[in-house]
UniProtKB/TrEMBL annotation:
Primary location: membrane
Stored NCBIfam families: shape_MreD
Protein name, entry field: Cell shape-determining protein
Record keywords: Cell membrane, Cell shape, Membrane, Transmembrane, Transmembrane helix
This protein's encoding gene: mreD
Pfam families attached to this UniProt entry: MreD
Amino acid sequence: MILEKVFIIFGMLLAHFLNGSNLFELGNAIRPDFMIIFVIFFAFRKGGLYGLWLGFFGGLLADTALGGEIGPDNLIYYKIGLHSFSYAITGYLVGKVARGAYTENYVSTTIYVFGFTILSRILTYLLFWLFFHSNHSYSFLYVSIYNAFIGPAMFFLLTLAYRLEHDEVRQ
Protein backbone atom coordinates (compact mmCIF):
# COMPACT_ATOMS: atom_id res chain seq x y z
CA MET A 1 0.00 0.00 0.00
CA ILE A 2 2.70 2.50 0.96
CA LEU A 3 4.93 1.25 -1.83
CA GLU A 4 2.11 1.87 -4.31
CA LYS A 5 1.80 5.48 -3.12
CA VAL A 6 5.58 6.00 -3.34
CA PHE A 7 5.54 4.64 -6.88
CA ILE A 8 2.68 6.99 -7.80
CA ILE A 9 4.64 9.93 -6.37
CA PHE A 10 7.64 8.82 -8.41
CA GLY A 11 5.44 8.77 -11.53
CA MET A 12 4.19 12.28 -10.77
CA LEU A 13 7.75 13.53 -10.40
CA LEU A 14 8.68 11.88 -13.69
CA ALA A 15 5.69 13.53 -15.42
CA HIS A 16 6.76 16.86 -13.93
CA PHE A 17 10.30 16.36 -15.20
CA LEU A 18 9.05 15.46 -18.68
CA ASN A 19 6.81 18.57 -18.71
CA GLY A 20 9.83 20.74 -17.97
CA SER A 21 12.09 19.17 -20.55
CA ASN A 22 12.16 20.03 -24.22
CA LEU A 23 12.67 16.41 -25.22
CA PHE A 24 9.22 16.09 -26.81
CA GLU A 25 8.88 19.67 -28.01
CA LEU A 26 7.64 20.25 -31.53
CA GLY A 27 8.11 23.50 -33.38
CA ASN A 28 7.37 26.68 -31.50
CA ALA A 29 7.08 25.45 -27.89
CA ILE A 30 4.41 22.82 -28.60
CA ARG A 31 4.89 20.13 -26.00
CA PRO A 32 2.64 17.54 -24.39
CA ASP A 33 1.27 17.89 -20.88
CA PHE A 34 2.30 14.61 -19.28
CA MET A 35 0.86 15.54 -15.90
CA ILE A 36 -2.73 15.79 -17.17
CA ILE A 37 -2.32 12.45 -18.97
CA PHE A 38 -1.12 10.96 -15.67
CA VAL A 39 -4.10 12.44 -13.81
CA ILE A 40 -6.59 11.27 -16.45
CA PHE A 41 -5.11 7.77 -16.39
CA PHE A 42 -5.46 7.37 -12.64
CA ALA A 43 -8.88 9.00 -12.56
CA PHE A 44 -10.11 6.42 -15.08
CA ARG A 45 -8.43 3.54 -13.29
CA LYS A 46 -8.96 4.42 -9.63
CA GLY A 47 -11.85 6.89 -9.52
CA GLY A 48 -12.71 10.47 -8.76
CA LEU A 49 -10.85 10.82 -5.46
CA TYR A 50 -7.59 9.58 -6.99
CA GLY A 51 -8.13 12.02 -9.83
CA LEU A 52 -8.85 14.83 -7.39
CA TRP A 53 -5.80 14.31 -5.21
CA LEU A 54 -3.38 13.47 -7.99
CA GLY A 55 -4.68 16.45 -9.92
CA PHE A 56 -4.21 18.72 -6.93
CA PHE A 57 -0.66 17.65 -6.13
CA GLY A 58 0.34 17.22 -9.77
CA GLY A 59 -1.00 20.70 -10.45
CA LEU A 60 1.04 22.08 -7.57
CA LEU A 61 4.12 20.56 -9.16
CA ALA A 62 3.18 22.14 -12.50
CA ASP A 63 2.62 25.48 -10.77
CA THR A 64 6.08 25.42 -9.22
CA ALA A 65 7.56 25.44 -12.71
CA LEU A 66 5.76 28.68 -13.59
CA GLY A 67 7.81 30.85 -11.28
CA GLY A 68 6.76 34.40 -10.54
CA GLU A 69 6.24 37.55 -12.49
CA ILE A 70 6.74 41.15 -11.51
CA GLY A 71 3.48 43.05 -11.30
CA PRO A 72 2.78 46.73 -11.95
CA ASP A 73 3.55 47.54 -8.33
CA ASN A 74 7.03 45.91 -8.56
CA LEU A 75 5.97 42.97 -6.39
CA ILE A 76 6.54 39.38 -7.45
CA TYR A 77 3.35 37.40 -7.95
CA TYR A 78 3.49 33.61 -7.97
CA LYS A 79 0.90 31.61 -9.86
CA ILE A 80 0.46 28.80 -7.35
CA GLY A 81 -2.89 27.04 -7.60
CA LEU A 82 -3.88 27.59 -11.22
CA HIS A 83 -2.96 24.17 -12.56
CA SER A 84 -3.70 22.60 -9.21
CA PHE A 85 -7.32 23.68 -9.29
CA SER A 86 -7.92 22.86 -12.94
CA TYR A 87 -6.21 19.45 -12.76
CA ALA A 88 -8.09 18.55 -9.58
CA ILE A 89 -11.45 19.50 -11.13
CA THR A 90 -10.60 17.64 -14.33
CA GLY A 91 -9.41 14.54 -12.45
CA TYR A 92 -12.54 14.47 -10.33
CA LEU A 93 -14.82 14.89 -13.36
CA VAL A 94 -13.02 12.13 -15.23
CA GLY A 95 -13.35 9.76 -12.30
CA LYS A 96 -16.98 10.54 -11.53
CA VAL A 97 -18.56 11.25 -14.91
CA ALA A 98 -16.60 9.46 -17.61
CA ARG A 99 -15.27 6.42 -15.75
CA GLY A 100 -18.36 4.32 -16.41
CA ALA A 101 -18.22 4.95 -20.16
CA TYR A 102 -14.48 4.39 -20.52
CA THR A 103 -13.33 1.46 -22.63
CA GLU A 104 -9.73 0.52 -23.14
CA ASN A 105 -9.20 1.07 -26.83
CA TYR A 106 -7.23 3.48 -28.94
CA VAL A 107 -10.15 5.58 -30.19
CA SER A 108 -11.85 6.14 -26.83
CA THR A 109 -8.56 6.91 -25.10
CA THR A 110 -7.66 9.40 -27.82
CA ILE A 111 -11.04 11.15 -27.60
CA TYR A 112 -11.06 11.27 -23.81
CA VAL A 113 -7.49 12.53 -23.53
CA PHE A 114 -8.19 15.21 -26.14
CA GLY A 115 -11.43 16.35 -24.50
CA PHE A 116 -10.19 16.42 -20.93
CA THR A 117 -6.89 18.04 -21.88
CA ILE A 118 -8.70 20.86 -23.63
CA LEU A 119 -11.03 21.19 -20.62
CA SER A 120 -8.11 21.52 -18.21
CA ARG A 121 -6.34 23.98 -20.53
CA ILE A 122 -9.46 26.16 -20.76
CA LEU A 123 -9.91 26.10 -16.97
CA THR A 124 -6.27 27.02 -16.43
CA TYR A 125 -6.46 29.82 -18.98
CA LEU A 126 -9.61 31.25 -17.39
CA LEU A 127 -8.00 31.19 -13.95
CA PHE A 128 -4.86 32.82 -15.33
CA TRP A 129 -6.96 35.51 -17.02
CA LEU A 130 -9.12 36.04 -13.92
CA PHE A 131 -6.26 36.44 -11.45
CA PHE A 132 -3.42 37.78 -13.60
CA HIS A 133 -3.75 38.81 -17.24
CA SER A 134 -4.55 37.35 -20.62
CA ASN A 135 -1.86 35.00 -21.91
CA HIS A 136 -2.00 35.07 -25.71
CA SER A 137 0.67 32.40 -26.13
CA TYR A 138 -1.24 29.75 -24.15
CA SER A 139 -1.95 26.79 -26.40
CA PHE A 140 -5.25 24.92 -26.22
CA LEU A 141 -5.58 22.98 -29.43
CA TYR A 142 -2.00 21.96 -30.19
CA VAL A 143 -1.31 20.59 -26.72
CA SER A 144 -4.62 18.75 -26.74
CA ILE A 145 -3.93 17.20 -30.15
CA TYR A 146 -0.41 16.22 -29.07
CA ASN A 147 -1.77 14.68 -25.86
CA ALA A 148 -4.45 12.81 -27.80
CA PHE A 149 -1.80 11.44 -30.15
CA ILE A 150 0.50 10.14 -27.39
CA GLY A 151 -2.25 9.39 -24.84
CA PRO A 152 -2.91 5.76 -25.82
CA ALA A 153 0.81 4.94 -25.74
CA MET A 154 1.14 6.63 -22.36
CA PHE A 155 -1.88 4.70 -21.04
CA PHE A 156 -0.28 1.46 -22.25
CA LEU A 157 3.04 2.30 -20.57
CA LEU A 158 1.34 3.39 -17.36
CA THR A 159 -0.72 0.20 -17.31
CA LEU A 160 2.47 -1.84 -17.58
CA ALA A 161 4.32 0.26 -15.02
CA TYR A 162 1.54 0.16 -12.40
CA ARG A 163 0.39 -3.39 -13.22
CA LEU A 164 -3.27 -2.47 -13.15
CA GLU A 165 -5.61 -5.17 -14.31
CA HIS A 166 -8.74 -4.58 -16.37
CA ASP A 167 -11.03 -5.44 -13.42
CA GLU A 168 -9.68 -2.48 -11.45
CA VAL A 169 -11.18 -0.16 -14.06
CA ARG A 170 -14.77 -1.29 -13.51
CA GLN A 171 -14.90 -1.26 -9.69
